[in-house]
């Protein structure tokens, strides 16, 4: 009899007794992944804007190249740690490529 009581008590307070707990974890994981994708996507958009400014020959870009690169790298790393690993890795590669292309374009001007 004591085994039946332990099973009943354990079932009510354990993993199976709280379906909201697992739903909450799934929701948190999805939210983190969504925010990570947003951060990594923002890094890519910043890189596109920086490349457009470099191609246009904007003097403001020359003055703000390091803060722009730092912001893009930071957003990509945040996206990586929030769960959007592939997109964030792509954002990091795209940031490096954008900086290289922008440097080549600015040297040609």
Secondary structure blueprint with pairings:
Elements: H1 2-13, H2 19-56, H3 59-63, H4 65-81, H5 85-108
Helix pairs in contact: 2-4, 2-5, 4-5
> What is the subunit organization of this protein?
single chain
**Shape descriptor:** elongated
Strand residues, percent? under 5%
Helical coverage, percent range:
over 70%
Number of strands: 0
Which structural category do the helix and sheet elements fall into? mainly alpha
Order of helices and strands: HHHHH
Q: How many angstroms does the end-to-end distance come to? A: 86 Å
- Please compute the radius of gyration using only Cα atoms: 23 Å
The number of helical segments is: 5
Commentary on this structure:
With 109 residues, this protein is mainly α. It contains five helices and no strands. The chain starts with a helix and ends with a helix. The longest helix is centred in the middle third of the chain and has 38 residues, at 19-56. α2 (19-56) packs antiparallel against α4 and α2 packs parallel to α5.
Q: What's this, in brief?
A:
This protein has 109 residues and is an all-alpha fold.
């Amino acid at each position: 009899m004591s085994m039946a009581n332990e099973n009943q008590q354990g079932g009510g307070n354990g993993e199976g007794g709280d379906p909201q707990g697992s739903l909450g974890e799934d929701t948190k994981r999805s939210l983190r992944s969504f925010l990570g994708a947003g951060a990594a996507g923002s890094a890519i958009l910043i890189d596109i804007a920086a490349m457009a400014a470099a191609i246009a020959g904007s003097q403001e870009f020359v003055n703000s190249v390091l803060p722009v690169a730092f912001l893009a790298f930071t957003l990509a790393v945040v996206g990586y740690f929030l769960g959007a690993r592939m997109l964030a890795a792509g954002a990091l590669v795209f940031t490096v490529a954008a900086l290289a292309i922008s440097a080549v374009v600015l040297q040609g001007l």
